[in-house]
Amino acid sequence: MKVGIIGAGLIGTKRAEVIYNLKKDKLVSVFDIDFSKSEQLTAKFGGKAVKSKDDIFKDKSIDTVIIATWNNVLAKLCLEAIKNNKNVLCEKPLGINYEEAKKIYSAAKKKGVTLKAGFNHRFHGSVWKAHQLVKSGAIGDLMYMRAVYGHGGRKGYDLEWRRNKKISGGGELLEKGVHLLDLFRWFMGEFKEGVAFCENMFWDRTKLEDNAFCTLRTRDGKVAQMQVSITQWKNKFNIDIFGKKGYVSVEGKGGSYGPEKLVIGRRKELGVKPIEEEFLFDKDTSWEEEWKNFSTAVAKKIEPIGSGYDGMMTNKLVAGLYASSKNRKIINF
Question: What's the pTM?
């Protein structure tokens, strides 16, 4: 693929580094509203720093665009890329809300281009293995999941763009919640109903939630619970998955979230401690594996894992959970 990147921040730079290291695809151009960031990125990973997004959209040699910007411009940029027949990897969320996600998804389907949402958490080694174990029946029929994704915050966090609703579109439910909701759908399928409490408990400079507590249920009775937070004080990522024959637990994702590991416990008989097996994952390869999957999907014209449809349906869950919290009632999705 010949790739253009719009947004040369942390995530755009990660994407560029992966393209550079894998050496299968080529980075052609990079645009950022801060031209110096484009220059810094291309100096390290190749390509040309351009001064207009149109230099990417109108370049017919570019077939794929990565959109890694603030949430409030994701939809506009995605739609412009699709209009110009580009495949698109849009960093999560797929637009600022469900309505924007629907427009992006519909436009991509109509044009026949490949659309992917940036859900790299599916590709963490521990999460990928957990999915394989669950789908193989290793812990029996799935009953429920619970997850915590918490950030410790930092000085001035309430002044960052993520805490500005006009730019971000929402608080922690939209920021980290989309990752967990996407994983819940991946493991459990679609949800029928849910309830949420989106609360501002500490970072009160804005009214955006700094904690969201959510419970969702499928039509066949499987339940998923989660908390996303920026008052965790010490970063935490944990997912527990319970089946009738055992459980799988994922903890950490490297860096400040601690070592990444998976534990599978197999139940032998009631009242007896399950036999556990532990797997450690020394390196986060999620960005590389996600890009490989996307590149293959584009080449074979198939749906990527963590597709545009997945991004849209996750935003639908977010919209429903915000409505539940606002109206203080269980809602149907």
Answer: 0.97
Range of the domain at 241: 122-282+316-332
User: C-alpha distances in angstroms, 110 versus 79, 83, 139, 254?
Assistant: 12, 10, 40, 39
Whether residue 93 has a cis bond before it, omega within 30° of 0: yes
Residue with the two structure tokens 């665009």? 65
- Whether residues 86 and 193 share a domain: the answer is no
Query: Which residues lie across from 226 on neighbouring strands?
Result: 147, 214
pLDDT tens track for 136-177: 999 999 999 999 999 998 988 888 888 999 999 999 999 999
The strand pairing partners of 246, in sequence order, are: 243, 266
CA 238 – CA 261 distance, rounded (Å): 10
Is 94:117 a contact under the CB 8 Å cutoff? Answer: yes
CB-based contact 236:243 (threshold 8 Å): no
Residue 68 to residues 14, 33, 157, 197, 265, Cα–Cα distance (Å): 10, 12, 20, 29, 38
Tally of domains in the chain:
2
